[in-house]
């Protein structure tokens, strides 16, 4: 289960917006830290809960004691239950299907992107090679989230990488 140290508010001092409740499903601890640091640098007030695989993500989403997230970020390649399988379960669950799901991957292969789009992902983000790139990507993702553009993803805007920001 998730320990309380996994939930960390980012940008606690900012009061312009209600903090975004985020679940990050990512098995790499360094990538978890990079994500949280990039959120802070992007000035996204947030509360992040981290899980390390797709099964923990499903369990957390179904846990009545946990608040519903505003958005979830799912690494495509994780142990126990991969991101695609978790996405499929989330989008086929009537209680969870409306939570925006952003897929994260180092790969940008068109068939992977197409597959996650078909399974109901709202956005596919290629993990950037730099911290600055991650900050820019998160700014774009949250701009899309706050403008409700993730509610009905358009295929040509579905893939985000450092090169197309």
From TrEMBL:
Record-given protein name: Response regulatory domain-containing protein
CDD domains, per database record: REC_Rcp-like
UniProt entry tagged with the keyword Phosphoprotein: yes
Superkingdom of the source species: Bacteria
A Pfam match: Response_reg
Keywords: Phosphoprotein
Residues bearing PTM 4-aspartylphosphate: 75
Annotated Response regulatory domain residues: 21-142
PROSITE patterns per UniProt: RESPONSE_REGULATORY
SMART domains in the record: REC
InterPro entries associated with the record: CheY-like_superfamily, Sig_transdc_resp-reg_receiver, TCS_response_regulator
């Amino acid at each position: 289960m998730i320990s309380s140290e996994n939930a960390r508010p980012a940008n606690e001092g900012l009061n312009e917006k209600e903090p975004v409740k985020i679940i990050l499903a990512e098995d790499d601890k360094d990538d978890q830290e990079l994500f949280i640091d990039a959120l802070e640098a992007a000035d996204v007030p947030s509360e992040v809960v981290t899980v390390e695989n797709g099964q923990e993500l499903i369990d957390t989403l179904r846990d009545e004691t946990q608040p519903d997230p505003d958005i979830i970020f799912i690494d495509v390649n994780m142990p126990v239950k991969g991101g695609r399988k978790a996405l499929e379960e989330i989008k086929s669950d009537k209680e969870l299907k409306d939570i925006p799901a952003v897929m994260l991957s180092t790969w940008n292969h068109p068939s992977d992107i197409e597959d996650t789009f078909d399974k109901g992902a709202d956005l596919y983000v290629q993990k950037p090679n730099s911290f600055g790139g991650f900050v820019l990507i998160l700014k774009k993702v949250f701009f899309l989230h706050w403008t409700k553009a993730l509610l009905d993803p358009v295929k040509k805007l579905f893939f985000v990488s450092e090169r197309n920001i």
